Amino acid sequence: MAKDMFLLWASGSPPCWRIMIALEEKNLQGYQHKLLSMAKGEHKSKETLDINPRGQVPAFRHGTNVINESGAACMYLENQFKSQGNPLIPSAQAEQALVYQRTFEAFNAHQKMVDVIMYTFRVPAEEKHEATEKRLKETATTEFKTWEGHLEKTGPYIAGKNFSMADVVFFPTLALAFRLGMSQKRYPNLGVYHGFLKDRPSIKATWPPHWTQEPPMKDPPLKDL
Amino acid sequence: MAKDMFLLWASGSPPCWRIMIALEEKNLQGYQHKLLSMAKGEHKSKETLDINPRGQVPAFRHGTNVINESGAACMYLENQFKSQGNPLIPSAQAEQALVYQRTFEAFNAHQKMVDVIMYTFRVPAEEKHEATEKRLKETATTEFKTWEGHLEKTGPYIAGKNFSMADVVFFPTLALAFRLGMSQKRYPNLGVYHGFLKDRPSIKATWPPHWTQEPPMKDPPLKDL
Do B100 and A67 touch (CB under 8 A)? Predict the structure, then answer.
């Protein structure tokens, strides 16, 4: 079944990683895929552009259906393979409400983390201001503190008692935040959550390969978080 | 049925408007709601904070279930009231793939528009740069041009032949962009789309009240788009 699926991905990219976790959770192993090098600009290649005209990864195709937005692909997989593998969106009303809420909150959390990373690496030096950088970091810190509180109230998974779509979307963002220097000591609940989820089969099987091969960067961008 | 729903909202806020359109489409009229004044800071009131601890609108509750993220609330309503009103997510595979794809793309489009608005009104003058502003406006322009192309390929609705969740999410962003000065002449397909959707009952019934009472602002932030 998964043979008619094709994914172009980059190591450590949370949007790519979400789709890979969802595929594992839905027992869709055996899909075709190709690891791209962003450093070599392979996401701007014809192969990528043919699937994703935005020239971004993930680029994902199921048969002739193209679904490049990671949230869209995850929702689609859950819906099309509802009774296969692990259910990612519960049907009970209260549980479903919480899973949807946390899932969409997680996209916003991701954006706040990306804002700091982009400001650090992409904004030209002459346009930078300490005040702006400080504000972006504070916003991201407040956001992760909010998630620290979520775990307190509705753990041990990020939306309650069971693994769900909210974990599929949130975990890759959190793992990248820790990889890029965010302090586990300042977020003990998130640290525990990260610690037990990283051994989950779907996450272990899709762990970013370069994270195990290369040491974390020196002077990482999220060290103040 | 809708009597156990409660929405705190602000006039012209795309996230609030999405939920209101979804409620209309699912025949959930008669819900309780309250229009808040952001100028008076009512989104920071206890009433709001009790539902949405982030102090933001929308703040939405169905019975005891709180779903404040607009995308989450819309997905939840579609799922809980699948056979009521208009279906917003088709079950056929190809149609479903496109609707999910455009729905999630629309959240990103919204963010790119908001980036320009926030830069204009929220970033302190001493931190501003013409180059940054130009880059943000170019990014937003490229984004709306992409949607102009989407309509060319998969119109007349934003994800194909039928009204769907993608319209629920995208339309309020587009309407706000036009209200804030984006040129309809530069986006003729989007102009036509906006023209015929604004008369759709769910959209007409939820049109931001202050837009009909007050003239558009002078020197609007999106006039260069």
Answer: yes
| Average pLDDT, integer, range B26-31 | 97
Interface-testing mutation among B1, B91, B96, with chain A (most A C-beta atoms within 10 A):
B96
Q: Does the pLDDT at position B1 exceed 70?
A: no
List the one residue out of B96, B93, B64 whose CA is nearest residue A93: B64
Q: Taking the model in full, what pTM does it have? A: 0.97
Using the CB atoms, write b or e for A123-158: b if 16+ within 10 Å: beeeeebeebbebbbeebbebbeebbebbeebeebb
CA B30 to chain CA mean position, Å: 21
Are the CB atoms for A158 and A175 separated by under 8 Å? no
pLDDT tens per residue across span A180-192: 999 999 999 999 9
CA atoms A204, A209, A215, A216: torsion sign: negative
A215 CA: distance to closest CA in chain B (Å): 32
Instruction: Quote ipTM for the complex.
Output: 0.96
And the tokens for A94? Answer: 């209260």
- Tokens 């909202």 sit at which residue? B9
Model pLDDT, residue B187: 98
- Walk across the sheet containing A65-66 and list its strands: A32-35, A5-9, A59-62, A65-66
Helices (H), chain B: 14-25, 46-51, 70-80, 93-121, 130-154, 165-179, 188-197, 201-204, 209-213
Q: Smallest CA–CA separation between A207 and chain B, in Å? A: 25
Identify the residue among A127, A128, A152 best suited for mutation to test binding to B, counting B beta carbons within 10 A and taking the highest: A127
Q: Which of A33, A77, A34 is nearest to A168 (CA)?
A: A77
Residue of B nearest to A129 (CA): B127
* Per-residue tokens: A51: 């699937």
- Domains, in order of start, for chain B: 2-80 (3.40.30.10), 93-213 (1.20.1050.10)
Length of chain A: 225
Residue B207: how many other CB atoms lie within 10 Å: 15
